[in-house]
Amino acid sequence: MDTASEETPLLQMEGISKRYGGVRALEDADLVVHAGRIHAILGENGAGKSTLIKVMSGVVAPDQGRIVLDGREVTFDSPAAANRAGVVCIFQELSLIPELSVADNIVISDPPKKFGMIDRKAQRRIAEEALARAGASDIHPSALVKDLPLSRRQMVEIAKALARKPRILILDEATSALTAADVSKVFDVLKRLREEGLALLYISHRMHEIAELADDCTVFRNGRKIATYKAGTKSDTEVIELMIGREYQNVFPPKSAANSTAKPILECRGLTWTDRLTDISFAVRPGEVIGLGGLDGQGQRELLLALFGVLRGCSGEVVIDGKPVRLGSPAQASSGEIGMALIPEDRKTEGLMLPMSVRENLAFSAMDKVSKHGIIDRAAEDRLLDEMVKLLAIKTAGLEVPVGALSGGNQQKVVIAKWLMRHPRIILLNDPTRGIDVGTKQEIYQLLRRLADEGAAIVFYSTDYDELIGCCDRVLVLYDGAIKRELAGDEITEHALIASALNIDVAQAEKMARAHP
Amino acid sequence: MSDTVTSGGAMSRMPKLLRNADPAVATAFACIVALLVFGSLYSPSFLSPEYLLQQLKVASFLGVIATGMMLVILLGQIDLSVPWAVATGAMMASAAAAFGPTGVALAIPFGILCGVLIGVVNGIGVAYLRIPSMIVTLATNAVAQGLMVVYTGGFSPQDSATAAMRYLATGSLIPGVPNAVIVWALIGAATVFLLTRTTFGRSVYAIGNRERAAYLSGVDTRRIVLIAFAIAGGLSAFGGVLLAGYASKAAQSMGDAYLLPAIAAVVLGGTSILGGRGSYLGTVAGIILITLLQSILSVMQMPEAGRQIIYGVVIVSMLLLYGRAPASR
Amino acid sequence: MSEWRFWFAAQKGTLLALGIFVAMFILYTSNHPAGFTANVVQTASNKGVLLAFVAMAQTLVVITAGIDLSVGMIFLLTNCLASWLVVGGPVETTLGVIAVLFVGILCGALNGAIVIYGRLQPIVATIATGAVYFGIALLLRPFPGGSVNEDLADALTGRLFGFVPASLVTLLATVLIIWVPFSRSVYGRAAYAAGSSEVAAYMSGVPIKRGKFLAYTLAGLLASIGGLFLTFFTYTGEAAYASGNAYTLFSIAAVVLGGVSLFGGRGSVIGAIFGAFAFRTIGDLLFVFDLDPLWQPLFQGVVLLLAVSLGAFALFRVKNRLEWFG
Fold first, then answer.
1. Is A385 within 8 Å of A412 (Cβ atoms)?
2. Strands A474-479 and A457-461, how do they pair?
3. Would you call A108 and C322 a contact, using CB atoms and an 8 Å cutoff?
4. What integer pLDDT is reported at residue A45 of this predicted model?
5. Per DSSP, what are the bridge partners of residue A74?
6. C161: Cβ–Cβ under 8 A, 6 or more apart, which residues?
7. How far apart are CA C38 and CA C169, in angstroms?
8. Mean pLDDT, consecutive 10-residue segments, chain A of 517 residues?
9. pLDDT per residue over C63-112, tens digit each?
10. How much is the CA Rg of chain C, to the nearest whole Å?
11. Whose CA is closest to A391, among A402, A383, A403, A401?
């Protein structure tokens, strides 16, 4: 381990493990952070970076391992406790209170007081100082946070963190919403903070930012620390090598020869929605499995929701069977003539009614198929449901069991099965294998391919690059709400996916792919 | 977010009836038995069939109203327009009777229709304008009150109930069994059917559990909410029609005494105030429980003040026992 | 300059309520047979102040994204209590006032404890506690009656310097003594933060529970000040169920008119006060136009329904339909 300096580290994390249900997010992870340095954390989706930060900043408690600050072991039972110890994190999901002013937010955890009341003058002064330090003097301390655009809010978030006088400042994708001008201001701030002796942890997917800022880098993969090295000692190619190279544990069904003559079922022309989706165009033919790739949160979720009629104010065209359609609700999208289905992102809040029975959940999207004049035909329902349970091999003690009592994998099968009851022609999947066991994953891959072979068009978003490679005929890589690259057939490699997801020069990545077959 | 998957493994293998009989319903029935025992100590006639039938008859007015309230609460909403939906139903039905034979014939449907209209306004506000149900229904309650005050001139209306209304509320088609009880039984049976055997019922439970998931499953959740509120309004008004029949005429604030008991009956019967969970059996238990409680308090000659206090205390303490929201982190 | 802009944006709701009130009041006095006289102002202020206190109470709870359907009943209960206790010499009267206010605090604290620590939904919890408070009020005053220290009552409902209504001065004092310190304290800010975004507030280490509890408790106190004033106006105590309900309902209307968001986190007591006065004046407009007072409840109901529907306009800005479901 070639750590960057020989002095005692400010913070050490040793042997940290954390599991969520059956999924291990962190496994025996280490990290050493020194004062006066900027430490970049790298890793692809699900490598364990976010969990590491959450542990460090007191949001989640680790199952195992210890945190040593200034040579003393500490435990943080809340974000506030971590703050008091000088560990401050700027989270991706904002922690600002929308209805309060910028100044109110900046001092929120420890406002200055006079006679027991909040001293507004002092508060104003602190806020102005913090904003100035963050290079955001253009933001008025009296403005309400909810009236600020996202990039300004992010700057307030940074100012708020600075006002807490941190010793360790963690920035988790803190620049993702910023404009280029802001980014350079923030970089100046970060460099100054480094000189002031703070330790900075910097998580970003933007390689050029890391190249500019970082002193040390640590790469995570599959919840483990893979390597720590001094910035500039490894090329982008080598870094990507470190980030991938996970063990292949999935077996995928063979892809069928694509029928390129068939007419597309679903076409999307210039689809645009607020600033989250920009000019998305693509077509899906029956029998095709189209993957959506890219880093998490680049507009994939919004694209699926837009297709399914959930988003308002979309411009551009959605074309089904050659005819432009306007879908205003999931009810329309899933109707007979459109035949669309969406397996949503979060099965617990969007896919299932957990306390309700398997029966009620399975039949819910297809109630018109098991009822007459709104009255449910129990016999017909039983027949169809039994078939479906057998088809997908859902392990349940019966149809009356609350669906919440099933395992994660079986819950996900119920979500898929409830849509298959409608025999959809267009199936949209939003990361359907997140947090489920390997066996069920295999079954889902087989099922997807079989459905495609039977003529369905499938659009499949996954945060797992293996799946995109193994399942998809084509992959659209999204970056910042737009399609950056379309990969087809043999082009779909982990190198190409990561390179285009990180928006690195593609030619270089391809060269690299040829050099390391 | 948080992993609050139910650990219903053992529960699920029990037969449906037992599984549905959650602790709340069992507690409610236990309380009914306790009240009956307590009451019989007070007066031996408490267990006589006549007295019990009389209680059922009184309960059936609350039963009709609470049925509508249950539908709305299952959605995770609430209907505070009950007081004046009840009064409107009663007054409008009686008023219709003044318009000759056609009016007399249409009195009951007309009263119910007025309640449905109130419910539709509630439903539009909640489902389409996304105003919190508590606020919309308070507002429609005020509007209904205003309309009725204008109509009646602020006094008890002079119109009296039609013979049909009186017959429904006080007569008995089957000797010994009051018609009001039959009406409630029919409405109850229809509700059980609606909730357990129809797509509408499934949707109501689903929306109460997770409207987002129901919407993404392709159900027009807004329409379901609108219909449920309309039914609730109609049932409140029908309750008013029956009450007017019982008392022979409508009265200004006749509905005030039914809001709290209706909510209490539903919630004490184990229906979650957050929606999505509850059985009609529980609501029946809650209705009988409330009615017996009222009856005993009046037998004991407890003044109105004591009754109100006991209601409030009983509701809060039973809810603290089993109706709490999950602890936040 | 730009400072003004932010102040204006923050006070938009309050200013709108003030505007509505001023317009309605001008309309009212200009058509009033007696015109703009000290008497007319005094009567209007006395009526408005009652609702203003209850609306202030409601505001505190609504800011935390809760609701208090028992305010009207606390108002009645303290009225009935005052008609027993606020009598006799100066010492007894003072003790009586303190006792009445203490009972108000107790009621509010009970609501807060049940909602925050008992984790019951505010709506059911306060409907139930409202029944209890009403029951106690009825125990105290089965029939309207009682009396009050009339010197104090006349002083607080009369005029200072011949033209300033004393009730308005009391209202102002209450704002200065209760609202200003609360809104500028850490707990007041916690109440706003919890109402606006409980998760963000938690992440920021804000004392959410204590802030909410204080809001409920002070709401009880404010409602009891309202109850005291009702006693000063009527010289009696009366447990009128309809009146308690009406005050609860009108307090919500006043809060909405006053620019307080029912979803929590936004608005101020000042706005709610103007909302209360505006609502009262709108209701009284019917009198000066010689319309049948019978129309008043309907008129008020329609104003309320329109006021709550205004918030729905935000719906048209929602781009993602999933946001409908919170």
1. no
2. unpaired
3. no
4. 66
5. A67
6. none
7. 15
8. 60 87 78 91 78 86 89 85 87 79 89 87 92 87 85 86 90 75 82 90 79 88 86 79 63 75 90 91 93 87 94 92 92 91 89 92 91 91 92 88 86 93 94 79 90 93 86 91 90 84 65 51
9. 999 999 999 999 999 999 999 999 888 899 999 999 999 999 999 999 99
10. 20
11. A383
- Answer whether B107's CB lies under 8 Å from B162's CB: yes
Residue C19: count of CB within 10 angstroms of its CB: 12
The Cα A449–Cα A469 span in angstroms is: 13
Asked whether the predicted pLDDT for residue B9 surpasses 60, the reply is no
pLDDT of B329: 35
Asked if B45 reaches chain C (Cβ–Cβ under 8 Å), the answer is no
What pTM was computed for the model? 0.84
Query: Taking CA B70 as the corner, what is the angle to CA B239 and CA B249, rounded to the nearest 5 degrees?
Result: 10
pLDDT tens column, C275-292 = 999 988 888 887 777 778
Neighbours of B129 (CB within 10 A): 15
Inter-chain CB proximity A144 and C9 less than 8 Å? yes
Confidence of residue B7 (pLDDT cuts 50, 70, 90): very low
Backbone angles phi, psi at B276, to 5 degrees: 85, -10
Work out the burial of residue A28: count CB atoms within 10 Å of its CB; fewer than 13 is exposed, 13-18 middle, 19 or more buried: middle
- Rounded to 5 degrees, φ, ψ at A242 are -70, -35
Put simply, whether C124 touches A (Cβ < 8 Å) is no
**Alpha carbon of C62: minimum distance to chain B alpha carbons (Å):** 12
What local confidence, expressed as pLDDT, does residue A1 receive?
A: 42
Tokens of C130: 């409202």
Partner C contacted by A116 (CB < 8 A): yes
Token pair 């002013």 is found at A101
pLDDT of amino acid B328: 44
DSSP classification of residue B110: H
Q: In whole numbers, what is the pLDDT of chain B averaged over residues?
A: 86
Q: Which tokens in the block code for residue C197?
A: 């975004």
| Residue pointed to by tokens 């229906």 | B271
Backbone angles phi, psi at A230, to 5 degrees: -75, 140
- As given in the structure block, the two tokens for residue C266 are 């936004």
Gap from C59 CA to chain A (nearest CA, Å): 16
Q: Identify the pLDDT of residue A23.
A: 67
pLDDT of residue C172 exceeding 60, the answer is yes
Which residues make beta-bridge pairs with A429?
A343, A460
End-to-end CA distance of chain A, in Å?
28
Separation between Cα atoms, residue A429 and residue A427, nearest integer Å = 6
Q: Is B33 exposed, middle or buried (0-12, 13-18, 19+ CB in 10 A)?
A: exposed
- Amino acid at position C56, single letter: M
Enter the ipTM. 0.84
C186–A140 CB contact, under 8 Å: no
Among B280, B284, B285, B266, residue whose Cα is nearest residue B323: B266
Residues in chain C closer than 8 A to B311 (CB atoms): 128, 131-132, 135
What SS3 class is residue A515? helix
Cβ-based neighbour number of residue C286 at 10 Å: 17
B residues 266-305 closer than 8 Å to A (CB) = 276-277
User: Which of C196, C200, C318 faces A95 most closely, judged by CB atoms?
Assistant: C200
- Partners for A (CB, 8 Å, 3+ pairs)? B, C
Q: Are A230 and A242 spatial neighbours (Cβ–Cβ below 8 Å)?
A: no
Contact C55, C276 (CB under 8 A): yes
Percentage of chain C modeled with pLDDT above 90:
50
CB contact under 8 A, B139 and C139: no
Q: Which residues pair with A221 in a beta bridge?
A: A224
- Most confident of the ranges A191-205, A229-243, B101-115, B301-315: B101-115
Per the CB < 8 A criterion, the answer to whether C301 and B145 are in contact is yes
